[in-house]
TrEMBL record:
Official protein name in the record: Disks large 1 tumor suppressor protein isoform X11
Keywords: Cell membrane, Cytoplasm, Membrane, Repeat, SH3 domain
Membrane topology listed for this record: Peripheral membrane protein
Family, similarity comment: Belongs to the MAGUK family.
Originating organism: Octopus sinensis (East Asian common octopus)
This protein's record includes keyword Flavoprotein: no
GO biological process, any: cell-cell adhesion
Residue ranges constituting the Guanylate kinase-like domain according to the UniProt record: 538-713
Amino acid sequence: MPVRKQDAHRALELLEDYHSRLTKPQDKALKNAIERVIRIFKSRLFQALLDIQEFYEVTLLDDSKSTQQKTLETLQIASKWEKEPPITNSQPKFDFVKRPNSLENNLIHIKLVKGNKGLGFSIAGGVGNEHIPNDHGIFVTKIIDGGAAEQDGRLQVGDRLLSVNYEDLDNVTHEEAVAALKATSDVVKLVVAKSSYIHDSVPLDAPSPSQMRSEDVQDTSITAATTTTTTLPHNTSTFQRPTTPRPLTDPDSPEPRRIVLNKGSTGLGFNIVGGEDGEGIFVSFILAGGPADLSGELRRGDQIHSVNGIDLRWATHEEAAAALKGAGDTVEIVAQYKPDEYNRFETKIQDLREQIMNTSTGSLRTTQKRTLYVRALFDYDPTKDSGLPSKGLAFKYGDILHVTNASDDEWWQAKRITPEGEEEGMGIIPSKRRVERKERARLKIVKFTGKGNDKVAAANEKRKSNFSFSRKFPFMKSKDHSGSEDVSADEQEGDCPGQGPPEKKPGGLASDSREGSLRGDEPILSYEAVIQQELKYTRPVIILGPLKDRINDDLISEFPDRFGSCVPHTTRQRRENEVDARDYHFVASREQMERDIQNHLFIEAGQYNDNLYGTSVASVKEVAEKGKHCILDVSGNAIKRLQVAGLYPIAVFIKPKSVESIMEMNKRITEDQARKTHERAMKLEQEFGEYFTSVVQGDTADEIYAKVKEVIRDQSGPTIWVPAKEKL
């Protein structure tokens, strides 16, 4: 659907109307941030329409978010769009007034790679905090020994920063410049106007930048706060990584400590808890990049004794919040590190939460549960998530995560669980709510553009009407695949090579186990709550996707003592030389097998030449109890049926990287066949992704086979993670 001009202007009008209603003094920061967003939208109006829609609904209209949180998210989205505009057809342009010296002759492009000491320079200036009179520019005020800037050698004191990673720094506040620099990855591209140009532009009656620095500006490292920061006439910031803070007082000291913080655009940057029954006020969370974090002097578990002389040792939570809120821009805090008292307080809160949980009848509520274990149902790369409040934790589909703190609606703290059961890594991951909200917003945008809606609707309708049983069974497998050996029949929607199309299903045999997901919106995959379970059987194995037939055959050939297949059931007559329970379980009557299907005794069944064929739960159990992995050539529907029967299969999805990779691994298929195979694989993932144990990719068939064997080894038990009865 093309974006109409009136739609674009309507979206912009909504934003401007919201902006006009911000009249309170405390709304100034949010108002300024929205002005930046509006400028961006006006320059790329039509391309940004969909971004406006999501931003307006998810951020500004969310009444559960504070003004401070909205301000932070608005600044983040503005920085993101300025850094990565919807459409970029030319080199970045910088809007500023040229001074007498030729700017082009004084511009240099510098690429810095962050090391252990970060970028290694300080800045000053910005709108409202001019470093040079009548100039809103951002200037370099200090080069730090050992930092990236010093090692590069081109950046000098007095240089003016014009852009960071193509984000324009002209007419921005000091806080916005700091945020832009801190949001960068390890490689940072700067556009700089050299100091000779800047000196020529300073009025003759004004002091030089160097004079101003020595007389008026004291550069203070962001990792070592001092009381001198309270009297700075200009804001300055030093870009060092706060990994090795050098606080003036030891945060681990049991003695009370005096800390001075200057409020930034995000406030003081920490949360408090407590204030009930005289238990004290404690710091519960430090916002990464906020004033508290950058000072290095405040930490989780600190008890707040006083704020600007106001005694908070016996204050209520409301009194403490009011004191911090009304403390002004410079806040003097007396704090004492009391980890034992804080841990006792947290334990009491957890007990109360557990009591609430025990009296509730709903699902697991993450805000009431201190820790939980989940299985990831998507890949997550924290380097691509610009909204992370602190260090993120990367994970892959199928990874087990120990969520150690799920009290926040947006971000959880978690560790990965290795196949050996050990915990590794620690970082922030997006909450279930955040993942699903962002995905719904993305899907809404796709729907809003009208692209592919007919195809999606048709596919969903087809899924609703599809017979739930597999159109091909292990006992019907043909080795003659007409050059498409690895195009599995369950992906072919019923095409059985060499055997003709399957016949229409008999009425009332069974229903699709996924029908619940077809009511309303499609499920969005995020996390699945899991628990550990001891196995007393060998898990069945289901391989789905391209190469599945080859992998199934190779597993049985290479490990005949560990892998086997089960004996299927059928209603057809026994032929000469066939042995019951060896070739098939021959069922006495069609009516009997239909009753067994209705009673969920089969994981998959279907009809061929007026005869029923099926794989029973009992047949799978028989192989499993012999200590062998039962190789099942079935559809994705069978995974859930096995789980319901108490047999948790190892379900491995082979996800092709591209159409070309399919052709590379199977030289006998045409490009059209490869494209259809790729499309079927993507559809398979969409329909059954939540049931996969693991998703495997590789460049060669041998690499994929090796990874599949590794997954089976890791998932064989005897202790495994299975879906919890309670839902997140």
